[in-house]
Amino acid sequence: MTITINSKHPNERGTCPAEYSFGETFSDHMFMQQYTPDKCWHNQEIYPYQPLSLDPSAAVLHYSQEIFEGLKAYRNVNDSINLFRPQENIKRFNRSAKRMVMPEVDEALHLEALKSLVYLDQDWVPHQKGSSLYIRPTMIATSAKLGLGASMNYSHYIIAGPAGSYFKGGLVPISVFVADEYRRAVKGGVGEAKTGGNYAASLFASEEVIKLGYSQVLWLDAVEGKYIEEVGAMNICFVYENAHIVTPELSGSILPGITRDSILKLAPALGYEVSEQRLDIDVILADIASGKITEVFGCGTAAVISPVGKLGFKGKEYVINNNETGDVATKLYDNLTGIQYGTCEDKFGWVESI
Ligand SMILES: *Cc1c(COP(=O)(O)O)cnc(C)c1O
User: Fold this and answer.
1) Which of 25, 34, 158, 22 is CA-nearest to residue 86?
2) Which of 190, 235, 237, 258 to mutate to test the pocket of ligand 1 (most atoms within 8 A of CB)?
């Protein structure tokens, strides 16, 4: 398979504007390939970013047969460009595809598509510290049919856009509300897949907590409403006595984050103990109140590490580490971003240069 490139700027490269807002500004080009049962994946092409043409009855618009990924390209200190563990995103994309009854994508082709798009749009990878080019691989069901059942046809495309530093003034703690009434995903459902419906299902509660002055929702398990799952688009970690990092074990309804996995591998090398456990919200809140838990932070590609300064639950507020960013969060943030931007040694072989 070869990817045809139809560049918008055959003799010169387009550039990233000085001002942009995350998720609303996109680079010059996009990758696209189509799937039909007879030809499988075909028409691999990179062409100028443009609207899609879809039948109004396209399956994705009615029954949400859709998956996506999120990863970033980082401008290295020596001006080359790095991807961080892209193979993990590619594998997770195929796991999500399988769960949503969508065709898998050849891993090598997917990587080539990511690299070719970023290479072509390399001037869109911002230079400012902490900024990056956010990349969004997506697959949608395109068959024009309202009858239920998996679609026959699919589009797989990749778009990208510049992302500024998530934290303009350094790491600033966020406040998180523990959902008491609403649930995100249930074991046996699609919580493990990166699929749009999970976000649609969480929007109502997200809007409610913003009205209460919190920025994100912490989800509990949907069976007992007792065990901690994850936060918005991040996994969550608790730090005991500044030394032991604990995160919920993958339950079947939690999205297995690549940042989470990276922390589980990196933290022991930095001298921390790590464990994955089933975490009871009442125990966690008691341990915050008694001071045994010294830090809480979310982790995901967008923010990397996001310290949590306050947890609200059933009318009570629990303050963590004086609502300040702790040493463990800072150290993990510095080391992970150091690997991504090429200022720390890449001991795990996580970086893929373009
Ligand atoms: C993408 C995502 C995460 C974080 O995953 P990373 O691979 O670390 O970016 C966590 N939770 C949900 C629901 C997500 O969609």
Assistant:
1) 158
2) 235
CA of 260 relative to ligand 1 center, distance in Å:
9
The CATH class given to the 4-163 domain equals: alpha beta
Q: What angle do CA 123, 124, 130 make, to 5 degrees?
A: 110
What is the number of the ligand 1 atom nearest to the C-alpha of 88? Answer: 7
Q: Which pTM value belongs to this model?
A: 0.96
Where in the chain are the domains? 4-163, 174-341
In whole angstroms, give the CA distance from residue 353 to residue 349.
11
Q: Give the fold, CATH level 3, of 174-341.
A: D-amino Acid Aminotransferase; Chain A, domain 2 (3.20.10)
At 150, the amino acid letter reads A
* Strand bridging mode 304-313 / 293-300: antiparallel
Q: What confidence tier does 339 reach under pLDDT thresholds 50, 70, 90?
A: very high
Burial 198-224 (b: 16+ CB within 10 A, else e): beebbeebbeebeeeebbbbbbbbbee
- Residues touching ligand 1 (Cβ under 6 Å) are 70, 194, 230, 233-235, 255, 257-260, 300-301
- For ligand 1, the distance from its centroid to the CA atom of residue 8, given in whole angstroms, is 32
- The residue whose CA is least distant from atom 14 of ligand 1 is 233
Expressed in angstroms and rounded, the spacing between residue 187 Cα and the centre of ligand 1 is: 17
Which atom of ligand 1 sits closest to the CA of residue 235? 10
Rg (CA), the chain: 21
Q: What does the DSSP assignment read for 34-62?
A: EEETTTEEEEEEEEE-------TTBHHHH
Q: What is the pLDDT of residues 108-119, one digit of tens each?
A: 999 999 999 999
DSSP string, 206-235: HHHHHHTT-SEEEEEPTTTS-BEEEETTBE
Is the Cα dihedral 196, 202, 206, 208 positive or negative? positive
Query: What length is written for the chain?
Result: 354
Q: Out of 84-88, 111-115, 150-154, 169-173, which region has the weakest mean confidence (pLDDT)?
A: 169-173
